[in-house]
Specification:
- The protein has 15 helices and 11 strands.
- It is of the alpha/beta class and 352 residues long.
- The chain has 2 domains: 94 residues, Arc Repressor Mutant, subunit A (Orthogonal Bundle), CATH 1.10.10; 224 residues, Rossmann fold.
- The strands form 2 sheets. Strands 4, 5, 6, 7, 8, 9, 10 and 11 form an 8-stranded mixed β-sheet that branches. The protein has a 3-stranded antiparallel β-sheet with strand order 1-3-2.
- The longest helix has 23 residues.
- The model has no long low-confidence stretch (mean pLDDT 95).
- The protein binds S-adenosylmethionine.
- S-adenosylmethionine binds next to helix 10 and strand 5.
- The site of S-adenosylmethionine has 17 residues, from helix 10 and strand 5.
Length: 352
Amino acid sequence: MRIGCVPESLPEWMVLHTGNVPTPLLESLGGLLLTRQLMAGAKLGIFSLLATGPLFAGEVAARLGTAPGATEKLLGALVGARVLAFDQGRFALAPLARCWLDPESPTSLLDSLLFRYDEWRFTENLEQFVQTGRPLDVHRELPGEAWGRYQRGMRSLAGLSAGEVVQRTPVPAAARAMLDVGGSHGFVSVSFCRKYPALSAVILDLPAAVEQAAPILARDLAREKLEGRVVHRAGNALADDLGRDAWDIVFVGQLVHHFDDATNRDLVKRIAHSLRPGGVVVLQEVIRPAAPGEGGQLGALMDLYFALTSTAGTWSFQEMADWQRSAGLSVKAPVRLRTAPGIGLQIARRPA
Ligand SMILES: C[S@@+](CC[C@H](N)C(=O)[O-])C[C@H]1O[C@@H](n2cnc3c(N)ncnc32)[C@H](O)[C@@H]1O
């Protein structure tokens, strides 16, 4: 998957292939505005409003209390981006965008778009990161009011792939206990518990995360009628006792990119001890491309993103499998998620 100049006609396609299109200009200015208009559409409530039905620009402005002329400009740009449709003077969510931008959709990305405001600030550190080699440590540097956006943004992304994660994880027969390390909103645990009626889960996350994630989890549990089956535990996965022979599944989603090799090796070893015989540990991560360009443009961008925003960066399947092997676990073949390109599962089982 690439992000960039996409021709909209045959002549444009031909010019693009001659190399005469100033792509750095279009991709930088166009990319900047494309990103920001999506963020604004989410923040100002345009997508949520239009999810209820088509409206004239003046009606959108009146309902949102925004300036009519400027609102019309933004709506027009969003039509250009194909997230809105325009018909007989009225604006509506484009049919293909509805599943991502309707707040009622199970795959709504609105909360993720709002976290872009924080990521916008993160990217301002890129040049300094390259000059000094010092990345951001988001869990230390995130301001208090941003933790809610972070947790809601993560929940929004989990909706894309949780079903596939559950489907592709070999869960031990009669599994009863799951630990979700750095599990935040807990949607993956909720999804496992929905499929396995005997299963209950504990989500271990930092206190600042649990405070914001608790209402998100409560809402999902109520919707699924799974109240009491998934609970939060505020703590620190690097310091807390994870238990012994306690869990059938330990899930670690998008966490190991925050820690260096020695820390992850130790974490996986402690997880291995905490598993029951036959239990599985699942490391879900953005997979580091083996060579520049190998994971495509998105793989390279994600590699840069995690290098900038976490103290360690992404890992390869082989590196994660090595932690599992040295912890005495039996390593499974890597799984690449179809619903989340670039993200994979490295699963291992504690011998029975
Ligand atoms: C990128 S989010 C991933 C959330 C969730 N697992 C998912 O995949 O959607 C990383 C989570 O790990 C948590 N975390 C970071 N360091 C931690 C630690 N030392 N112990 C427990 N949780 C931690 C963060 O608070 C955050 O909720």
